[in-house]
């Protein structure tokens, strides 16, 4: 004899199941910087990507169960390619893809006995920072239009709080990467030292002349950016210490300002 479960209880059980599945994985952050949108994930794999390109100006980031969000990524690429070929490449937008993902995840959550354990972001870079678009789509198909930055994954609240402490609107690429690393290092309430081997980094670069704005940051260039971000953080800490000493009426040691190379 089948048991009766109320719709409210069924939806609650599905939501709890999906959240627990997502929480088992490492987090990812997406944030704006002066030249575009930066996407950073805590990911040691060199081939199983959490961050990918969807179309010319649109990127995809995800956390949760890999096989499920990989299916979503592939479907999004195909949808964008068909739409761009049938109409115009400029007609493929982040909002369009976010809506398509929301419909898919909403239908799975409502109609299937098992929800997908994924949380994804669709980001589109604009001609200016005000025109950037970042959409978060959750396991139940809910869509949120985010601004400035966001964190998702197992310890999203802790990562987001740490990111808020470091994030500066319109920051340089190295400063934005430093804020992202600082936030991801505070996952699960612990303080870790992140290295390039455990990071997946990509960006949507509005300064690129080509129509494809997505590129990955890895190897020597990522190492250089990490060193620049640490130098900037050290200079900022020294400046704060000098300022605090001046307010207390004590003399502080002046810290040198590190130079920053252009990444272009």
Describe the 3D structure.
With 264 residues, the chain is an alpha+beta fold. It contains six helices and ten strands. The protein has helices spanning 7-23, 66-86, 94-111, 156-166, 173-184, 219-247; strands spanning 28-33, 36-42, 51-55, 58-64, 118-124, 133-137, 143-146, 149-152, 199-205, 214-217. A five-stranded antiparallel β-sheet has the order 8-1-2-9-10. The chain has a five-stranded antiparallel β-sheet with strand order 3-4-5-6-7. Strand 3 and strand 4 form a beta hairpin. Helix 4 (156-166) packs antiparallel against helix 5 and helix 5 crosses helix 6.
What is the element layout, followed by pairings?
Blueprint: H1 7-23, E1 28-33, E2 36-42, E3 51-55, E4 58-64, H2 66-86, H3 94-111, E5 118-124, E6 133-137, E7 143-146, E8 149-152, H4 156-166, H5 173-184, E9 199-205, E10 214-217, H6 219-247
Helix pairs in contact: 4-5, 5-6
């Amino acid at each position: 004899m089948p048991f009766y479960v109320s719709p409210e209880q069924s939806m609650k059980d599905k939501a709890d199941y999906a959240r627990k599945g997502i929480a088992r994985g490492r987090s990812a952050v997406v944030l704006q910087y002066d030249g575009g949108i930066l996407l950073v994930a805590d990911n040691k794999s060199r081939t199983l990507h959490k961050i990918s390109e969807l179309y010319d100006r649109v990127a995809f980031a995800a956390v949760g169960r890999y096989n499920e969000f990989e299916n979503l990524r592939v479907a999004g690429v195909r949808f964008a390619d068909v739409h761009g070929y049938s109409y115009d490449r400029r007609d493929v937008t982040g909002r369009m893809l976010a809506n398509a993902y929301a419909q898919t995840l909403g239908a799975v959550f409502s109609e299937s006995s098992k929800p997908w354990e994924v949380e994804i972001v669709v980001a589109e870079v604009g001609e200016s920072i005000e025109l950037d678009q970042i959409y978060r789509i959750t396991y139940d198909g809910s869509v949120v239009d985010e601004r400035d930055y966001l964190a998702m994954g197992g310890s999203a609240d802790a990562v987001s709080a740490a990111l808020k402490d470091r994030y500066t609107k319109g920051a340089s690429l190295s400063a934005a990467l430093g804020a992202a690393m600082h936030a991801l290092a505070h996952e699960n309430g612990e303080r870790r030292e992140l290295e390039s081997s455990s990071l997946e980094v990509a960006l949507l670069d509005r300064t690129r002349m080509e129509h494809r704005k997505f590129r990955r940051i890895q190897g020597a260039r990522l190492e250089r950016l990490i060193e620049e971000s640490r130098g900037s953080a050290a200079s900022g800490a020294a400046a704060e210490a000098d300022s605090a000493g001046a307010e207390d009426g004590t003399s502080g040691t002046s810290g040198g300002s590190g130079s920053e190379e252009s990444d272009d």
